[in-house]
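Let's practice the habit of predicting before peeking. Look at the sequence and jot down your guess about where helices and strands might fall. Then scroll down.
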Amino acid sequence: MTETKPLSGQTALVTGASRGIGAATALALAEAGAHVILVARKVKALEEVEDRIHAVGGSSTIAPIDLTEQDAVARLAAAIAGRWEALDIMVISAAFLPQLSPLAQVEAKQFNQAIMTNVVATHALLAAFDPLLRSAKAGRVIGLTSSVGASPRPFWGAYGSTKAAFDNLLETYGAEVEKLSPLRVAIIDPGATRTEMRARAYPGENPESVKPPEAVAARITALLQEDFPTGHRERVD
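Done guessing? Here is the structure:
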């Protein structure tokens, strides 16, 4: 008898899926049986993740887009709606970390990029995929945040403020749909994790001193199999 995987028959979309926590989560969801739509800007990197998914017997579709481009998310949603009737899982992992500096010295270009990636694109994803998420039997949205969104820290103002807005968008959306559908929304703070973003923020840190992305991916995959309430929030230590 073939063992049924816990997420078999489900369709998942993961942003920031070309590396780090996004890539690890995409692989973990595919291993659990979901068909994973991989979203990021770089085609080659997405193809490498897809190869890893196929190597473990999973299935995926790559969607190389820039989430900050006008109408890009709307076009993606339309393409997915033409192939699938519902979206069971959306993991919002894509994020941009601007240069860490005193708030008065933050470069406008970098701050704008953080706002577009971390805030504007998040709203676009929630708005464009709302019908597909509500059409799922038990739709789930997981957003990856940072502790600096809730606890301001010197030199992290540009990134932290966008993550505070990110959290607010997700929590508001979750509250709005909670009584209208089985859709549930949760926020995960991955904590210190061995990623390229972490290495840029802490260049002197030994990467081996923090957990790998796979640890966060495993927790996300487990959470998606739980009956968590909307508004659920946790840190992965």
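How did you do? The mean pLDDT is 96.
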